[in-house]
Amino acid sequence: MKLIAPNLYSMGVQHTSAVVQLHLNSFQGFFLSFLGPSFLTIYYAALCKASEGIAIVYCNDNGIPAGFVVGSSNPRGFYSRLLKREWLRFAIASVGAMVRKPNIIVRLARAVSHPGNNPVGEDVAGLFSVGVQPDFQGCGIGKQLISAFLEEAAKRGCRRVFLTTDRDNNDAVNIFYQRCGFAIERQYETPEGRRMNEYWISINDEMNKV
Fold this sequence. Notes:
- The chain has helices at 16-26, 31-35, 37-49, 78-100, 104-113, 141-155, 171-179, 203-209, and strands at 3-5, 8-10, 53-59, 65-73, 124-132, 160-166, 183-189, 195-202.
- By secondary structure, the protein is an alpha+beta fold.
- The protein has one domain: 3-Layer(aba) Sandwich (Aminopeptidase), CATH 3.40.630.30.
- Strands 1-2-3-4-5-6-8-7 form an 8-stranded mixed beta sheet, sandwiched between helices.
- Helix 1 (16-26) crosses helix 3 (37-49) and helix 4 (78-100) runs antiparallel to helix 5 (104-113).
């Protein structure tokens, strides 16, 4: 476990169960949460072991994760590459969700293929999700995690980072990303009808502000 800054560490497999619980608390009602803790456990463990993965946790004074941020460099097709490595385990972990709601099969296939439309290149990174335990929110932890993510992406030669988030009923999150220096470059609607904001940030410009 590599110390990045006070209380910030590179995410290891030992953090997976705590990060899964953070995800479930932070993203209630979202698609990945519906797939369940078994799926999320495989997802986060695989992501933090992937060579292109960027995964960082904020641990409280007892060493328990109270926040996390994950993403990857060269994000185009990242999920497809991840699926090729872990397809059988993901399939087994998805069975329960598919039994509860069979029509998610189409959604799952689309979720795997859609990131193939993500920007490509060694100089680009994608930030996939960031979450902070409720009783730690408002303490600047989210911004610390974002800054650490940008620094790690810069070390890997990335010059820009993008992310997507819901446009509607999501004001606090959108304001947070804007305060971190991200700017909306594109808005679109998913096949499910979710209106999304696509944010980008230049790492060099942001690092110069620090």
